[in-house]
Amino acid sequence: MENVQTVPAQAAEQTTSINAPSLHSAVCPHCQKNDFVVLGTKGAKGAAIGVGMAFGAIGNLVADSMNKDDATIKPLRCQCNACRKKFEILPLKATPEEILETPCTVNFTRLSSFVGMAVAQHVWLNGVKVGTVGNGKSISFPVHTKYNTLFVTDQYGVAFKGNYKFEAVSGGTVDVRFKKKFLQ
Ligand SMILES: [Zn+2]
Predict the structure, then answer these.
(1) Which residue of 51, 99, 101, 171 shows the fewest CB atoms closer than 10 Å?
(2) CA 107 / ligand 1 centre spacing (Å)
(3) What is the pLDDT of residue 74?
(4) Quick check: is 10 in a domain?
(5) How much of the chain exceeds pLDDT 70, in percent?
């Protein structure tokens, strides 16, 4: 059991080597439990604006996206469900056991809403941004890992309440609907 979260200081420079992010083995540094909610990204204000513009296209591969300069791996602000303490982590690299034989496709739909309709929302898979979705729009992206956490942030990097955790099946499809919260 090596549950200790070790985040190298130069992690931000190693983004291209992390081709399948995972939060599956990340644990709360206070109680070592893997039961937490992502509250948002740290220091996202400003930085997140503009970054999303490059991710408007459908079907960005996570691995491909992460080779781009504007890929974002930011520390995640989290709150433990067990001890309620807040902490920060970076997404980990998925272990080989977590990798699916064939990627699973996620079809993410942001349902129309009149409130805040002009604001782009950012979709994050396992702590890495995979796309930006407008009001009433959908994006599709592959997931390469079995255990996944989705969350959505506003332009300031603040996550909407609730994360969506799901287990992906090799070659499968997952439909996710979102309207200020996950609807499944
Ligand atoms: Zn805890």
Answers:
(1) 101
(2) 31
(3) 74
(4) no
(5) 71
Which structural domain, as residue segments, surrounds residue 60?
Answer: 20-178
Q: Give, as residue ranges, everything with CB less than 5 Å from ion ligand 1.
A: 28, 30-31, 80, 82-83
Is residue 4 in some structural domain?
Answer: no
Listed residue (150, 160, 72, 74) closest to 116, CA to CA: 160
Q: What's the CA gap between 54 and 162, in Å, rounded? A: 26
In the chain, count of helices (H) and strands (E)?
1, 12
Q: Ligand 1 centroid vs 42 CA: distance in angstroms?
A: 19
Residue 12 lies in a domain: no
Strand ranges, E, within the chain: 21-22, 36-41, 76-80, 86-89, 92-93, 99-110, 121-125, 128-133, 138-145, 147-153, 164-167, 173-178
Put simply, whether the predicted model's pTM sits higher than 0.90 gets the answer: no
Ligand 1 centre distance from Cα of residue 4 (Å): 13
